[in-house]
Design brief:
The complex is a heterodimer of chains A (115) and B (111). Chain A contains no helices and eleven strands. In chain A, the strands form two sheets. In chain A, strands 2, 4, 5, 6, 9, 10 and 11 form a seven-stranded mixed sheet that branches. Chain A has a four-stranded antiparallel sheet with strand order 1-3-8-7, with no helix packed on it. Chain A is an all-beta fold and 115 residues long. Chain A has strands at 4-7, 10-13, 19-25, 31-38, 42-51, 54-57, 64-66, 76-78, 87-94, 105-106, 110-114. Chain A is 0% helix and 50% strand. Chain B is mainly β and 111 residues long. In chain B, strand 4 and strand 5 form a beta hairpin. The radius of gyration of chain B is 13 Å and the shape is globular. The chains are: A mainly beta (115), B mainly beta (111). The interface between A and B is medium-sized, with 28 and 27 residues.
């Protein structure tokens, strides 16, 4: 199993550009999520999904869109990038959304810089 | 509002020393998790504590969940350079599908 994979690893955008961060898992996990990690801020939840066709907002959803058309993939879209979205983005998955008992597996991250 | 406060935020110690990291909140959590993150990688789950007062040991690491399920601690005995990293606590409330993370404690263990 490859686990959770993310592409690209690094990306530089100009303000106003759009892009999609890719996330895939091969563990047949129902639950997937996106976090951003900023210096001194820990991880903050952007969006999450408890299964194909179902998505919901996390703590910091503004400026980001997601969709979950398959169990394996959970892309994160930035429609119009802003410097405030400069961050490291992590995708994670777990067997179910019962995070008090299920292990969440994180991808290696995408480091995004918006100029 | 940061629901989970971690302290200290930074710690630099010598190999062989002991240390304790705290994760505190005014909120009750159904479980608390501890993660370790190395530079350039995603967090990796170390342990989940569920029951108030629970103590779990993982080799030289001891984790405790407070009786009221509002706080947790991580104690490392005889720290080694391989323990260097960012330690994050995260809490889940009720049957929540969301985790709340603390800001993390950056540990450096010098040989």
């Amino acid at each position: 199993n490859a686990g959770v994979t993310q592409t690209p690893k690094f990306q530089v955008l100009k303000t106003g550009q759009s892009m999609t961060l890719q996330c895939a898992q091969d563990m047949n996990h129902e639950y997937m999520s996106w976090y951003r990690q900023d210096p001194g801020m820990g991880l903050r939840l952007i969006h999450y999904s408890v299964g194909a066709g179902i998505t919901d907002q996390g703590e910091v959803p503004n400026g980001y869109n997601v969709s979950r058309s398959t169990t394996e993939d959970f892309p994160l879209r930035l429609l119009s990038a802003a410097p405030s979205q400069t961050s490291v983005y992590f995708c994670a998955s777990s067997r179910t959304g019962t995070l008090s008992t299920d292990t969440q597996y994180f991808g290696p991250g995408t480091r995004l810089t918006v100029l | 509002t940061q629901l989970l406060e971690q302290s200290p935020q930074f710690l630099s110690i010598q190999e062989g020393e002991n240390l304790t990291v705290y994760c505190n909140s005014s909120s009750v959590f159904s479980s608390l998790q501890w993660y370790r993150q190395e530079p350039g990688e995603g967090p990796v789950l170390l342990v989940t504590v569920v029951t108030g007062g629970e103590v779990k040991k993982l080799k030289r690491l001891t984790f405790q969940f407070g009786d009221a399920r509002k706080d947790s601690s991580l104690h490392i005995t005889a720290a080694q350079p391989g323990d260097t990293g960012l330690y994050l606590c995260a809490g889940a409330q009720g049957g929540s599908e969301k985790l709340v993370f603390g800001k993390g404690m950056k540990l450096t263990v010098n040989p």
